[in-house]
Design brief:
- This protein folds into two domains: about 80 residues, Chemotaxis receptor methyltransferase CheR, N-terminal domain (Chemotaxis Receptor Methyltransferase Cher, domain 1, Orthogonal Bundle), CATH 1.10.155.10; about 190 residues, Rossmann fold.
- The protein is α/β, with parallel strands linked by helices.
- It has a seven-stranded mixed β-sheet with strand order 6-2-1-7-8-10-9. It has a three-stranded antiparallel β-sheet with strand order 3-5-4.
- A hairpin with a 2-residue loop joins strand 4 and strand 5.
- The protein is about 45% helix and about 20% strand.
- Helix 2 runs parallel beside helix 4.
Length: about 290
């Protein structure tokens, strides 16, 4: 369905005076400029369903009025962006990434920590936290004593997203127990507390993660460089120039030899292609300086 078709006749149950093609176009432009997310023509109804509660809350009455509001009210603009963010994810998604991390990356990170050097990881676009906690369980492993030694070293993990509601769920670290079925059982046994049908991530991994509200298209208040960055199934909503710009920024904040994991349908292209070498399916390593 293209937009011309979508708006040739009034959308079912929606007055064109309340929401029309010009409103969709204006919202799409604002969302793209703010977050890099592209809203294709077929998303007209999705935009209506997710933004109409904010239109009602603000008393704007029409989408045109709401558009004018968020041009100057950046807090409400951020809420509109968050409302249109897709937060679908699950534990151990694309499990080959965690297999690679455990076998190829983790041993070097452990040695680095033991030598007194800092280790930094980033779950960028962490959504509701399943990726972050999968990564933490893979990092800490099955040996509680070894994990406690790691935690006493200079180990920090950043988890960021632009949607406050997703971050709240991620930080709460509580899920349906069945959601962890893809995680290796020995890791679940060590790092999740199961109470009936509910699972809560254990205190040790939670103590190592800092959750931050961050728009990847904005400024990154980050000092230092990362050993590993996971940014998966975030760039599928971006156009090519935005993807290439973002990956180049990731490359800049990676340590030489550091790894970037991206989504199964995403690829590294553009300037970062000279810096990041593929070492596995959608896994890239920064070349040594």
């Amino acid at each position: 369905m293209n937009l011309a078709t979508a708006f040739r006749e009034p959308l079912p149950g929606i007055s064109p005076e309340i929401y029309g093609e010009a409103d969709f176009r204006a919202l799409a432009e604002i969302i793209y400029a703010s977050s890099g997310n592209v809203l294709p023509d077929g998303k007209a109804m999705l935009v209506y369903s997710r933004i109409s509660p904010l239109v009602r809350e603000t008393g704007c009455a029409t989408f045109a009025n709401f558009v004018e509001l968020i041009r100057s009210d950046l807090e409400m603009q951020d809420r509109a962006v968050a409302a249109l963010t897709t937060n679908h994810t699950f534990f151990y998604r694309e499990s080959h990434h965690f297999d690679h991390f455990e076998s190829k990356v983790r041993p070097d990170l452990v040695r680095k920590l033991e030598s007194g050097k800092p280790v930094r990881l980033w779950s960028a676009g962490c959504s509701s936290g399943e990726e972050t906690w999968s990564l933490m369980m893979a990092l800490l492993g099955t040996d509680q004593l070894a994990a406690k030694r790691m935690a006493k070293r200079d180990l920090r993990v950043l988890a960021s997203d632009l949607a406050p509601h997703a971050l709240r769920k991620a930080e709460a670290a509580t899920y349906a127990a069945k959601d962890l079925k893809a995680v290796p059982s020995d890791l679940v046994q060590q790092w999740a507390r199961i109470d009936g049908e509910t699972a809560t991530i254990a205190d040790l991994p939670r103590s190592l993660v800092r959750f931050r509200l961050l728009n990847l298209m904005g400024e990154w208040p980050i000092s230092g460089k990362f050993d590993t960055i996971f940014c998966r199934n975030v760039m599928i909503y971006f156009d090519l120039p935005t993807k290439e710009h973002l990956v180049a920024r990731f490359a800049e904040v990676l340590q030489p030899g550091g790894h970037l994991y991206i989504g199964h349908s995403e690829r590294v292209t553009g300037p970062a292609g000279a810096i990041l070498e593929p070492v596995g399916p959608t896994i890239y390593r920064k070349r040594a300086a």
